Amino acid sequence: MQNFEFYNPTRIIFGKDTIAQLADHVPAKARVLVLYGGSSAEKNGTLAEVRAALGARTVREFGGIEANPTYETLMRAVATIRAEGLDFLLAVGGGSVIDGTKFVAAAVNDKGDAWNILRTHGSDVSEALPFGSVLTLPATGSEMNSFSVISRTETKEKLAFGSPHVFPRFSVLDPTKTYTLPVRQVANGVADAFTHVMEQYLTYPAGGMAQDRFAEGLLLSLVEIGPQVIANPHDYDLRANLMWIATLALNGLIGAGVPQDWATHMIGHELTARHDIDHARTLAIVLPSMLRVRKEAKRGKLLQYAERVWNLRDGTEDERIESAIERTRAFFESLDIPTRLSAYGLGTETIDGVIEQLEQHGMTAMGEHQDITLDVSRRVLEASL
């Protein structure tokens, strides 16, 4: 196992009717900006509960954060905070709203070009406004980590940053707030969480016994409940398990002391930035092809994955690996998530643009071995057609 430091200060408040506990965790004298996305938080009553819990505190609201939160929109929130002297943020929504809130928290006191927070991947962030979250869409794990992904419409860029200064102080997770989510968003959440686990698990054997078993348990659980959680939107236990699994998939625990990949995400980000495909759907497009193209580098873990997650023990090594990859693709397809670029109207003409963006963003040596060159990324995209 590799050396590691594990730190996660986020308090999780989990269960039914827990939004009222905001009153105990938002400072009584805080001047709060509530950030949210579209109208669903208002329609399903979540915002009303938040307002009631915040009581007599000074509260302002900022809506309209996109599914891929944009720099342009978030800088308007920054301007509001500066103009009104607000000092605490509360994200109400899914990972996109929480990601956006992290950027806003870091940007408010930044004296230069705030886009540099993304260009430097957060290395220059030295402070951030405190914030909490109320999670309404399980998917990204942003409610319990210190990472954020932001898009810039003007330049068609999508970049990530991380900083220990942008851990949420707390996150409220009430599974009942997911009951009214559209099927597409729930399916995306399952795929997103699944791929988060795979990026940390499916690399090469590193002796992380607990991490492997934790990761395999999360994958097995997602395979088991994925179709069910879509078919039974008001099943509390299913939604509760999905919500907690998605949090555990990216709160740092399963990735501690083991190698990580993340190349699937980097390529997926460029597909979203250039073609506006849902983030989780880009992952479903790229991951099976990434596993196939990098089959030799990942052979040991692919065989372990085949046996422990898909119960594949018969046949040659190559047959088991191929079957595991195809079952992964079939799992995404069972969620009604297409796994080929052609299903989104994209062909070979899209590949050069994605490769150019990867090169522009310095993504020329990715993966657990830093051996995913632009040529390998091209092969992955060609295999995704």
From TrEMBL:
<dbReference type="GO" id="GO:1990002">
    <property type="term" value="F:methylglyoxal reductase (NADPH) (acetol producing) activity"/>
</dbReference>
<dbReference type="InterPro" id="IPR044731">
    <property type="entry name" value="BDH-like"/>
</dbReference>
<keyword id="KW-0560">Oxidoreductase</keyword>
<dbReference type="GO" id="GO:0005829">
    <property type="term" value="C:cytosol"/>
</dbReference>
<comment type="similarity">
    <text>Belongs to the iron-containing alcohol dehydrogenase family.</text>
</comment>
<dbReference type="GO" id="GO:0046872">
    <property type="term" value="F:metal ion binding"/>
</dbReference>
<dbReference type="InterPro" id="IPR018211">
    <property type="entry name" value="ADH_Fe_CS"/>
</dbReference>
<dbReference type="InterPro" id="IPR001670">
    <property type="entry name" value="ADH_Fe/GldA"/>
</dbReference>
<dbReference type="GO" id="GO:0008106">
    <property type="term" value="F:alcohol dehydrogenase (NADP+) activity"/>
</dbReference>
<feature type="domain" description="Alcohol dehydrogenase iron-type/glycerol dehydrogenase GldA">
    <location>
        <begin position="9"/>
        <end position="175"/>
    </location>
</feature>
<protein>
    <submittedName>
        <fullName>Iron-containing alcohol dehydrogenase</fullName>
    </submittedName>
</protein>
<dbReference type="InterPro" id="IPR056798">
    <property type="entry name" value="ADH_Fe_C"/>
</dbReference>
<dbReference type="GO" id="GO:1990362">
    <property type="term" value="F:butanol dehydrogenase (NAD+) activity"/>
</dbReference>
<feature type="domain" description="Fe-containing alcohol dehydrogenase-like C-terminal">
    <location>
        <begin position="188"/>
        <end position="355"/>
    </location>
</feature>
<dbReference type="Pfam" id="PF25137">
    <property type="entry name" value="ADH_Fe_C"/>
</dbReference>
<dbReference type="Pfam" id="PF00465">
    <property type="entry name" value="Fe-ADH"/>
</dbReference>
